Amino acid sequence: MSGRFSNRKILTSKPALDEYNQKYHELYFSLGDAATYKRLRIVESGLVSCFDDSNIYDPQKLQVMSLTKEGEVLGVTSFGIFTNSKRTESQNLYARIDLVITEKKWRGFGVARILVLSVLVYILELYRKRLYSISCLAAHEAIANILESISFTGDRRDEKGFTHETLSFEAIDPNEYFTVRKSELEDNLDKCYQKLYKK
Ligand SMILES: CC(C)(COP(=O)(O)OP(=O)(O)OC[C@H]1O[C@@H](n2cnc3c(N)ncnc32)[C@H](O)[C@@H]1OP(=O)(O)O)[C@@H](O)C(=O)NCCC(=O)NCCS
Question: Which residue, 61, 70, 89, 199, could crosslink 194 as a Cys pair with Cβ 3.0–4.6 Å?
Answer without folding.
Answer: 199
